[in-house]
Amino acid sequence: MNLVILFLTFSALTIIGLLNDETRNATFSRTKEEWTADMAGLFIQGVVIPAVPFITVPFLYEFLPRFAGKLDINAFVQFMLSFVLVDYLYYWNHRLFHRRHYWFIHRMHHSSRHLDVFATSRNSMITSFLFVYVWSQIIGMYLLKDSTPFMLGLGFTFALDLWRHSGVKQPQVLHSALSWALIMPEQHVFHHSLVGRNRNYGANFCWWDKIHGTFSPNEVKNKELERISNRNVWTELFTPWKVNK
């Protein structure tokens, strides 16, 4: 189910982006290094990361069977745990990456000059495995008797992640209807700008930023968000801790 949600969301946002002249021009202005970074990220987060729990959980069942499938939780509660509680944990996960000592983990994600759906997964290789979502998938599939609702909540979170990075400006009516709860794409563009990097850490909900004083409604143009990096893309991908800050 999650793969279907993600495929449809990615396809729709790609078409919407390519139909917009400004977004299309920005997308195709990528350098070879930028395409390499974005395609590698999409492969890791679209293929490798979804496979991780299906590889890991059978080992847990084999070598740690005591807790395997023992939790039988109401479907609605499961969904809320993954869609709301894990989202709150991600807020701190993401905010930690912005601390000076851990910035090298997250720096590559902020190297995009503009946001579109292809830039969603631009990360170093190790970063993709440090998100709370990855470990939540494993824990949920291991502990829950039927983890379908829990995984569905994560599926919607991943779809919102694509939408949030799409750079697609929302119609005012949709913005008004959703912005009281969700982090909007415009607000995430601001987060990726040099002036807004320490604002809007949230993924699904804007509530965590509002509670902890890091929310900003400011918007910036979706271009020249970051300077073009002259660092070696392969070093950034595989050994980001070796890149001079």
From TrEMBL:
Domain Fatty acid hydroxylase, residue spans: 79-214
Protein keywords: Membrane, Transmembrane, Transmembrane helix
InterPro entries for the chain: Fatty_acid_hydroxylase, Sterol_Desaturase_Related
Transmembrane segments: 41-61, 73-92, 125-144
Gene Ontology annotations of biological process type: lipid biosynthetic process
GO molecular function: iron ion binding; oxidoreductase activity
Places the protein is found: Membrane
Organism whose genome encodes this protein: Peredibacter starrii
The protein, known as: Sterol desaturase family protein
GO cellular component, one term: membrane
PANTHER family associated with the record: STEROL DESATURASE
Domain of life: Bacteria
